[in-house]
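On clarity, I found the account of how folds are encoded harder to follow than it need be. Since the whole study asks how a given chain folds, the encoding of that fold should be made plain. For illustration, here is how one protein appears when written out as sequence plus structure tokens:

:::
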Amino acid sequence: MDRRSFIRGAGVAGAGAVASSLAAPAVAQGNITWRMVTTWPKNFPGLGVGAQRLADRITAASGGRLTVQVYSAGELVPPLQSLDAVIDGSAEMSHGAAYYWQNKSPALAFFTGVPYGMTTPELTAWMRYMGGQEIWDEIYDQFGVQGFLSGNTGTQTGGWFRDELTSLDDVKGVRFRTPGLGGRVWEKLGATVTNMAAGEIFQALQSGTLDAAEFVGPYNDLALGFHQVAKNYYMPSFVESGLATELVVDKKKYQELPED
């Protein structure tokens, strides 16, 4: 399938432009300050810390000429509105996962991960050497942004469940936090699926709003405390073989940066 057919089949939605009420990024004496909004809680192990590390590296590599200020989930915009913040100009950059935005285009799920999809090295190879980046660029061009791979969690775990799963019948009616096309698979199995940001999941499990949740794996999930509420943990995930994170940048502002 050629890339134009791929994109047409994905049903790419249009994005409405919303005027930003926030101040423009600071530009003084050749120095630029950009805002990076993230979907992760502040200082969150791995993902949140990784976003800050990336911002620090960009700042250092530019000798401070391009300073990146990181805003964790909810500090500037709600976590699952991070991409919209870049599209409407409220921020210059976002750090998250492309499958969070599959309501804009189902094709975006392929740039995080899909059921029985590519492993970490396979996804990276597709993006760098086999045309994946070009397809991604064409999708994101419609929203005025540029996407970059910013890391990968590897194979994730299936999730935490209050009740033991002994058959497919046990899945029916389970209120489950899981995003992407994998969430659609769980829906086909009978679960009631929702997506929510990392920092909101524990409270939903504790209150009984959710019966189950999956996020990444033991390192991240321990920090979020899921084990305190749900005692049945299943691995590996059949819907997330190698999950990539993304850095998204306002494309016009990116192209206006000095060559160096």
Observations:
- The chain has two domains: 22-154+243-255, 159-234.
- The chain has a mean pLDDT of 90.
- The two ends are 37 Å apart (CA to CA).
